[in-house]
Structures are given as structure tokens and as C-alpha cells.
Design goal:
By secondary structure, this protein is an alpha+beta fold. It has helices at about 10-20, 25-35, 45-55, 65-70, 75-100, 105-115, 155-165, 185-200, 220, 225-230, and strands at about 125-130, 135-145, 170-175, 205-210, 215-220. It contains ten helices and five strands; from the N terminus they run H-H-H-H-H-H-E-E-H-E-H-E-E-H-H.
């Protein structure tokens, strides 16, 4: 049944006006964003297919442009619109976290809150998290996007941003598109350089986290670099 043939009281937009946006179902909200369906299915049915593909409303945030395109009835324009709405929602939540002066207790909590940044990425993305003296987040900054297996990041850029934001400490986070979280020789040398510069300028790098397909590697938790540093050997 086409939307125009449905009873007025069951149409998503009319229900929005009647009961309010907070009382609409996930399917109805998605239908409003999609605007229309196809000749074979109405917009409500198309919305159901998207939710089924995602698995749940919570997992909808992990849907990518490429996954939307695989759904019959979702073309390039609709896939762009959906991916953009999801990204906007992520940014709203993250900015809200910043306004609440987000604090993380360990590498796992940083990973859990930010792993969505790397879903479906086929190249390296390098982020820095800048904190104030109370270990409250000031800003998350994407510094570099690299090739499939290499990012071109320089320590001076990391600390330049720290000075601009009057940051007191830093946590670095980047992904390995291969999915393997094991640090490369370049990762180890780069982290060692960050620690040395951070100590020199009084802006410590608290951790460097590598994100993979199903987990993370924390230099602070697992690397000898930080263990030696704690023992005063470097």
C-alpha cells in the first residue's frame, strides 16, 4: 500500500504533527527522512528493510554509505542522505559530551566511545584528544588521513595543536585498516618520539591507542615504552 493510500492517522508526517516526534517509532522516523519509497515498496517497508539490515536501532549508527547502497531501493542520493544524518547525529552526541567535559578513565573507555570513527575505513585516520589539567576533554582533532597502510603524521603537528588549545595532556588514537592491532615498528618509534617531546615540553602523551576490527592496543597498558618510562629508564 502506498503512503498516500494509508489512513491519514497512520502516515508518519501526520503522526509527527499529531503526537510529536518523541512518540514516533524508529520506522516512522526513518520514513520521514527517506521521504518516499519505490514502485515496489512504500517508504515504511523500505524503512523496515534498513532496520533489518542494521540489526537494531543501536546498530544503525554503524551503517555505512556502502551498506546502504546494497539495499534494494536505496540509490546514491538516499544513501548519501542517510549516511549524512547518521554522521550528524554522531557529531551532536560528541559535541554534547565535550560540553559536559567528557572524562575517560582508561583506554577501553576511550576505545568504546570512539571506535565508530573507524568503521568501514580503508585508510589510516589519526586523531588526537586534548585534555585540560583536570583530565577533561577539550577537543578531539583529526590530524591526518593516510594511505591503506601508512599515515603521514609528524609530532610537531600533534604538539602545535596542543599549544593552540592550551592542552595539558594528549591521547593519540589511530586505526589499522588491516584489522590487526599489533603496533608496527613505525608506531613504536613514533610513540617513543611523542613521549620524549611531551616530557620535554611538559605536555605528556598519556596513551597511544591502535584500533582494529574487534579491539584495540594501548601502548600505556601493554608496551614496554610506558613501563620503562614509569620506572624512570627513559
Amino acid at each position: 500500500m502506498k503512503i498516500k493510500n494509508m489512513p491519514v492517522t497512520e502516515r508518519p508526517r501526520e503522526r509527527f504533527l499529531e503526537v510529536g516526534v518523541e512518540n514516533l517509532s524508529d520506522k516512522e522516523l526513518l520514513s520521514i527522512i527517506l521521504k518516499n519509497g519505490t514502485k515496489d515498496k512504500n517508504v515504511m517497508e523500505l524503512s523496515c528493510e534498513i532496520l533489518n539490515e542494521a540489526g537494531s536501532i543501536n546498530e544503525l549508527k554503524d551503517m555505512t554509505f556502502a551498506r546502504f547502497l546494497k539495499i534494494k531501493g536505496i540509490g546514491t542520493v538516499k544513501a548519501i542522505e542517510l549516511a549524512s544524518v547518521i554522521e550528524l547525529g554522531k557529531r551532536i552526541v560528541f559535541k554534547d559530551n565535550i560540553s559536559k567535559k567528557k572524562r575517560w578513565r582508561n583506554a577501553k573507555s576511550i576505545y568504546e566511545d570512539n571506535k565508530y570513527l573507524f568503521i568501514g575505513k580503508k585508510q589510516e585516520f589519526f586523531y588526537c584528544f586534548y585534555f585540560n589539567t583536570k583530565q577533561e576533554l577539550i577537543e578531539r582533532k583529526l590530524l591526518f588521513m593516510g594511505t591503506i597502510n601508512k599515515s603521514c603524521v609528524h609530532p610537531r603537528e600533534v604538539f602545535k595543536e596542543a599549544y593552540l588549545r592550551s592542552a595539558s595532556s594528549i591521547v593519540c588514537l589511530h586505526n589499522h585498516p588491516s584489522g590487526d592491532t599489533s603496533p608496527s615498528r613505525e608506531d613504536i618509534n613514533f610513540t617513543r618520539s611523542l613521549l620524549e617531546i611531551g616530557d620535554t615540553f611538559g605536555i605528556p602523551v598519556l596513551d597511544h591507542i591502535i584500533v582494529g576490527d574487534n579491539g584495540y592496543y594501548s601502548f600505556y597498558e601493554e608496551s614496554d615504552i610506558y613501563e620503562y618510562r614509569r620506572r624512570g629508564l627513559i
